[in-house]
Amino acid sequence: MKGLWQVLPMYPLFCAIFFIFLYSQPCASTSKNLSCNSNDLRALEDFSNGLDSRIDGWKFHDALAANCCSWPGVRCALFSVFSSSFSINSTDPSLRVVSLDLASTGLEGLLWNSLLGLDQLSFLNLSHNSLRGTVPPELFHLRRLEVLDLKSNNFTGELDQGISNLTSLSYIDVSFNRFTGFIPDSFHGLQRLESFSAESNCLEGRLPNSLSSCSMLSLLNLRNNSLDGNIDLNFASLVQLVVLNLGSNRFSGHIPKSLSSCRALQVLNLASNNLHGKIPKSFRNLQALSYLSVSKNSLSNVSVALQTLQECQNLTVLILTRNFYGEELPNNGIQGFHSLQALVVADCPLTGSIPSWLANIKELSLLDLSWNHLTGGIPLCIRSLDYLFYLDLSNNSLTGEIPMSLTKLKTLNSDSLSHNGSSSHGIPFFSWKNPTRLLWYKQYINFPPTVDLSNNMMDGTIWKEIGNLRLLQVLDLSKNNFTGSIPDELSGLRNLETLDLSFNGLSGTIPASLVNLTFLSSFNVAHNHLQGQIPKGGQFSTFSSSSFEGNPGLCGEFFLVCYSTSKPPEEEENDREESNVVLEGLPLAMGFISGLLLIVILVILPLLKQG
Ligand SMILES: *[C@@H]1O[C@H](CO)[C@@H](O)[C@H](O)[C@H]1NC(C)=O
Ligand SMILES: *[C@@H]1O[C@H](CO)[C@@H](O)[C@H](O)[C@H]1NC(C)=O
Ligand SMILES: *[C@@H]1O[C@H](CO)[C@@H](O)[C@H](O)[C@H]1NC(C)=O
Ligand SMILES: *[C@@H]1O[C@H](CO)[C@@H](O)[C@H](O)[C@H]1NC(C)=O
Ligand SMILES: *[C@@H]1O[C@H](CO)[C@@H](O)[C@H](O)[C@H]1NC(C)=O
Ligand SMILES: *[C@@H]1O[C@H](CO)[C@@H](O)[C@H](O)[C@H]1NC(C)=O
Ligand SMILES: *[C@@H]1O[C@H](CO)[C@@H](O)[C@H](O)[C@H]1NC(C)=O
Ligand SMILES: *[C@@H]1O[C@H](CO)[C@@H](O)[C@H](O)[C@H]1NC(C)=O
Ligand SMILES: *[C@@H]1O[C@H](CO)[C@@H](O)[C@H](O)[C@H]1NC(C)=O
Ligand SMILES: *[C@@H]1O[C@H](CO)[C@@H](O)[C@H](O)[C@H]1NC(C)=O
Ligand SMILES: *[C@@H]1O[C@H](CO)[C@@H](O)[C@H](O)[C@H]1NC(C)=O
Ligand SMILES: *[C@@H]1O[C@H](CO)[C@@H](O)[C@H](O)[C@H]1NC(C)=O
């Protein structure tokens, strides 16, 4: 959300300074014939020579073009030797390289110590290339570095302790490399550090305590490494923290209470660790918190968790999956969540029933309580969830009918989502159920509109009004005890891609109108008591026999030829040929057999007698 863009408040300022220098440069060079500093030129040449690839537009051997300041990715500034800041009032007006941006330029090879000469460099972006090998320690002698972006390369080795020398550093990103070993405990001097990302490497060991002294830190992302131990930074001193992402590591112990002193915290991801204990009650103070995931840990007491977190007025996404083993989902004591849009409490497995306080979460758009042991029915009050477009209650022990109010859900009855949803702040959202095919979504709003009640003990009929939920892309009612027929009105679900009604007690025919569902790519009515003709045409020509098996009365396509006479007129033509073989062939065969008998009686028998 908006606060995220405040992560690097200094950065725009820094750019603005560049801007001024860029545009004063032509004027400066015509009057004073400025060229790039010869040491810098040599450093760039060494750097370029160390690579396997060439950098387009860098011309070392062309005397006229040797002003490296005009090369792609290079920015210079006039620099005073006496002043530590940019100045045009300088006694050595040579142009110095202050920024090198070669992100996504196809660089391959090793990074030699050659950048060492660029001692005025403050911005280095080498992200999204194929650089490999270790990062030379000399890089950490570039004391003026403010921004260091090495994301998405193939760097190996350990993160160097020399980082402690980079006292001007405000932004460092080494994510998506193959760094190993410990994160050096060398952050004491980095008083300006605002953003540190080392996601998706092979880092191990504990959180470096010295990070606690980076009081400007607003983003810390160490997701998807092998870090362990307690989460024991001194959060009381990290009051600027906006994003803390420690997911997919091996952290253990409790969630630290002191996190609640990070009043600016908007995004907290602790998913997939080995944390236990409760959600600290002090978390109610996290009024800026917008995204919280603690899924796949061993936390306990779902009541305390919900009671505490309902006080977080800005919480929009809450993911509690795989915790609270065997506890009961509380029905009382929860008044509602002010801003909550997505609630996922799956695979715990929780007992109890679907709580009525859900109806108080006015903004709720996505609800996933699947893979629990919930009993009872779906409460009628579900209707008041005007924004709900994704409902997954599958694999519980729910009973009763589908409440008619479910067919009145406002968003699913409309043509588009009324909510834009909240971004998950760069943390991928995924459908956790299908581990072989992880579906990642940038934000939950990209989930397909879904009603999944499969694998329960529900009964009654499939209301024809379900056909009003025209935004639906996935309707799964399989593995229940639904009876009656498949309503013709389901053809009103124009956006439907998946329809699963298998393993119920459905009877009657498959409505021919379903061939009009042009996006239907997955269809299953197996194991019911359906009969009659399988519809032809449309997407139905792509479904295999497994979609229909277990219905002895069905005919056509894969099964017995249909004897039924009640066929839609346009299909009669096609059917006639197949049917004719049997229906008209029968008298013919009868005639043939009786003819044969006649021959035996009249001709062969008398011959035998004679013999
Ligand atoms: C100006 O730059 C050109 C090319 O770099 C160089 O040959 C020439 O000597 C310079 N003139 C002065 C006055 O420095
Ligand atoms: C500019 O340079 C002159 C002469 O070296 C010096 O007296 C003056 O203080 C400088 N001004 C600034 C703003 O640095
Ligand atoms: C580095 O370059 C990449 C690709 O252009 C960009 O996405 C990223 O924001 C840049 N890093 C910084 C710190 O500006
Ligand atoms: C990193 O190295 C691996 C193995 O050497 C290679 O398969 C992969 O393509 C490299 N990735 C990049 C971004 O260069
Ligand atoms: C810090 O930089 C200096 C030179 O700039 C170097 O001698 C020293 O070894 C560096 N410190 C570390 C820990 O690398
Ligand atoms: C986690 O990091 C590993 C490399 O350490 C990478 O191969 C993998 O794709 C990452 N997984 C995710 C989900 O980001
Ligand atoms: C909560 O969110 C609103 C809207 O995004 C924002 O204006 C407000 O500042 C946030 N509250 C806190 C405490 O951050
Ligand atoms: C949860 O915590 C509350 C208050 O600490 C306690 O009364 C309750 O028994 C706990 N419930 C479970 C299931 O541990
Ligand atoms: C139902 O949930 C249980 C866990 O509660 C899980 O083990 C099982 O695989 C799930 N079954 C299906 C069909 O998804
Ligand atoms: C929702 O998204 C649309 C298009 O993406 C945009 O025009 C609109 O301003 C957004 N509305 C809100 C409330 O963010
Ligand atoms: C389905 O309903 C029938 C009739 O009410 C009942 O006899 C049967 O046990 C139910 N089956 C399941 C699996 O609930
Ligand atoms: C398919 O839709 C068209 C147009 O709405 C309608 O005329 C036709 O009868 C439908 N087909 C079937 C088999 O219901």
TrEMBL record:
Q: Which Pfam families match?
A: LRR_1, LRR_8, LRRNT_2
Cell membrane recorded as keyword = yes
Listed GO CC annotations: plasma membrane
Q: Where is the Leucine-rich repeat-containing N-terminal plant-type domain?
A: 38-76
Question: Transmembrane stretches, by residue range?
Answer: 586-608
Q: Does the keyword Cell membrane apply?
A: yes
Q: Its domain of life?
A: Eukaryota
Q: Which UniProt keywords apply?
A: Cell membrane, Glycoprotein, Leucine-rich repeat, Membrane, Receptor, Repeat, Signal, Transmembrane, Transmembrane helix
- The stretch of residues making up the signal peptide is 1-29
Question: Topologically, how does it sit relative to the membrane?
Answer: Single-pass membrane protein
Question: Main subcellular localization, coarse class?
Answer: membrane
Location within or outside the cell: Cell membrane
Q: Which InterPro entries match?
A: Leu-rich_rpt, Leu-rich_rpt_typical-subtyp, LRR_dom_sf, LRR_N_plant-typ
Q: Which PANTHER family match?
A: LEUCINE-RICH REPEAT RECEPTOR-LIKE PROTEIN KINASE FAMILY PROTEIN-RELATED, PROTEIN KINASE DOMAIN-CONTAINING PROTEIN
Q: Which family does it belong to?
A: Belongs to the RLP family.
Q: What is this protein called?
A: Phytosulfokine receptor 1-like
